Every structure is written in structure tokens, then in C-alpha cells.
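Exercise 3.2. Students should predict the tertiary structure of the chain below and write it as C-alpha cells, then compare their answer with the key that follows.

Predict this chain's 3D structure.
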Amino acid sequence: MNSSVANFLTKSVGGAALGLILYDSHIAGKLEAPKYEKNHKAESLEKHFFNEQKLDSPSIIQATVKKSIFRHHVDENLSGFFTSIIGYAKGFGSMMVKNFIPLGLVAGTLVGKGIFSKFCGAGLLAYGGIFLAQEMFGIGKE
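Answer key:
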């Protein structure tokens, strides 16, 4: 096979695998973002609610201030935007870590040269083949 054709096929396999990994990580980030935002909001409201219920002194002013602070946190939505970004980053990052081996093979395929790139491409195809064999036919699963 011509060397340029082999290089093109190797880089194509690496590019396709990178696209699949990035897409998978993006979806994981989209799924994690609302969960993280809702959990953070619930924890924050719980903290502020219990803070509202406790008074250090029998002051009506202190009670009114604490109730208004709690109502503000109930209606406030700006922090949800930032916590959803953090949730997305956590979901995206966790999926990238889970795909560490194929990501390393992709890097070797796309950045490497010569025979190293071809070995990484072959390893990537083997990794994908093993994954499909396990998921489709249950080979190697208990």
C-alpha cells in the first residue's frame, strides 16, 4: 500500500475516534450540568433555610433580614448558570478520563509519525474491535 494512503487512513481512523470521544464527552457534560446545578441549588437552599430558622437573639429585624436573604436565594438564577458550567466541565472531564486509553492512542495516531502512528492506529482499531465484541456478543464479560 502506498505510504501516503496508509498515512491518510491512519489519520482518518484517529480523527474519527477523536470525534467519537469528544461527542461522548460532550453528551456526558450535557447530562451532568443540570444534575450538578440542581444539587448545588438544593444544598444552598437547605443551608440558607436552616440559617433562617436559627436566631442568635430575639430580633425581629434579624429575622426579617434572614427571611429576605432566603427568598433572594430561592428566586436567584445567576449562580445556576455558573454551576451548570462547572457541572458540564465535570461531566466532560470524567468522560475524557474514562476514555484515557483510546485518547492516548488517538494522540499517537494523529501526532505520531511513521510506524508509531500506524501502530497506534492499529491499536485503536483493536480497542474498538474488542469493545464491539464485548458489547455485541458478550465476549469477555462475566
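Discussion points: Helices lie at 3-53, 60-75, 78-98, 100-111, 114-137. The longest helix spans residues 3-53.
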